[in-house]
Write a structure and sequence with these properties.
four-stranded antiparallel sheet; globular; DNA-binding; homodimer; Arc Repressor Mutant, subunit A; Jelly Rolls; alpha+beta; 248 residues
DNA sequence: CCAGGACATTGACCCAAATCAAGATGACAG
DNA sequence: CTGTCATCTTGATTTGGGTCAATGTCCTGG
């Protein structure tokens, strides 16, 4: 379980804090009653498939802890990740019977699930939840558009740096600010999953990680823990716009 | 003006048919009254910038005719298209003051604009319009995810083929079915815009177009008109899933 | 009709990342 | 402790698409 996940696990309370923040950030508590009555928690082991592309989906869910990935595959086996869901992200497609993507637990994963039909009913009857979902979907679309820039125009080194930055930012948003802008990230992804995210091969990911280490941009503590000594400085230097990403 | 655009231009009527289909497909007519009162049409010449990334945006809009592109740029000039808006598509980001992307008219463009504030108010007060916008946003997210697969894993030839297929499909959806599955597409994009869409250089786009022509997969009629002789067969052969795209 | 400029094509060469191929590391079962 | 298996690293080689440069093709306005 990642550091992210651990943090969230300790916050459990009667009204699931993640879902509260995620789906109903600004709703009154009584608006949650209906959702509350139909939620089901589900746990998946790292590597386990949550559902296959083409499966009938009658659940939607919110990520409580861990990391889920959406992937698309061509018949010849080429694979591209098309979604990376971290705690508080929404999973599912209201209004669609059939899943378009394969969902996999990248690390140990805890989902908070709702049956799709009642959830859609709730969307219809409760504009605030619908509005919140629209907002989340728009954010996800923005993230997808940054991802398009990454896949279309960045070099392998820049791709790796951007991914580490995305993960480090989410880490930083949750944790207290780290001293000196130094930040540690537990990679929730294998080299292969990173490659699928970045449109690279796992060999290239490995080589570029080694190169970033050699150049002193990152420190590797085991295979899955990355320390970025100058994260604070690097991120603040290069605003939040569509720049090449720091660490490059 | 593209064939698309011409078709739509002839459909003009009191209640803008595009907006009707796009934003309020299943709304009652009286629900449109409020929208109706605040709409403004705006026309842009091919190549003209509609708004720059970072600009204050106080409009949202619907594409009536023509093609608009959203692009993202890195400081060193590398450019990636992150959105391609055809007639009936929605433009704008309710809830955001500042535009994240540069919007350009790829061909001559007619927009139907609404002031953002009243539009947001309408979203709040009218759940059916909000629901419709959510549906459109989810569709756009799906399209973005197909685009991720294209950028991350497809060869130059496959990228071109996929783009032609996307344009041909929209053409086919509007026009009567063409005889023999033969279809003609007026490219609304320059080679450079195609390259920005596909994450390639314009030289590679040009070379691959020539190669497809040489191989008899497409016919070029001038620079901007493409005929795909076997479109019907190619598309039906390879279902609608995440395949490599036909024409490859 | 011709000149100028935007857009497109084609060629020669190069390089970043893919591919193919060994090994290294590390977690875990027995 | 040791063998197995998944994961990761590193090296040698190939190649698809980028880069640089020259040429071609329209369209438009004078």
């Amino acid at each position: 379980m990642t550091a992210n996940a651990a943090i969230f696990a300790t916050q459990s309370c009667e009204i699931c804090p993640i879902r509260y923040r995620a789906v109903c950030a600004r709703c009154e508590r009584d608006e949650l009653a209906e959702l509350e009555s139909v939620k089901i928690y589900r746990r998946y082991a790292a590597g386990q498939t949550v559902s296959w592309a083409g499966d009938r989906m009658d659940m939607v869910a919110s990520v409580v802890s861990g990391v889920a990935s959406l992937t698309q595959q061509m018949e010849d086996g080429r694979t591209q990740m098309v979604g990376l869901l971290l705690p508080s992200d929404f999973l599912g497609r209201p209004g669609r019977e059939v899943a378009a993507y394969t969902v996999t637990a990248a690390s140990e994963l805890l989902l908070c699930c709702f049956r799709r039909k009642p959830f859609e009913e709730l969307l219809r009857s409760n504009p605030r939840i619908a509005g919140r979902l629209l907002e989340m979907t728009l954010d996800e679309l923005d993230a997808a558009r940054d991802w398009l820039l990454l896949l279309g125009r960045k070099s392998a080194r820049e791709k790796i740096a951007s991914l580490l930055t995305i993960l480090a930012r989410r880490e930083a948003a949750l944790n207290l600010r780290q001293p000196e802008g130094r930040i540690a990230v537990d990679l929730p992804l294998t080299r292969e999953a990173m490659a699928d995210y970045l449109g690279l091969t796992l060999e290239t990911v490995s080589r570029q990680m080694s190169a970033l280490k050699r150049d002193g941009v990152i420190e590797l503590d085991g295979k899955r823990r990355v320390v970025i000594p100058l994260f604070g400085r690097l991120v603040s230097e290069s605003g939040d716009d569509a720049d090449g990403g720091p660490l490059s």
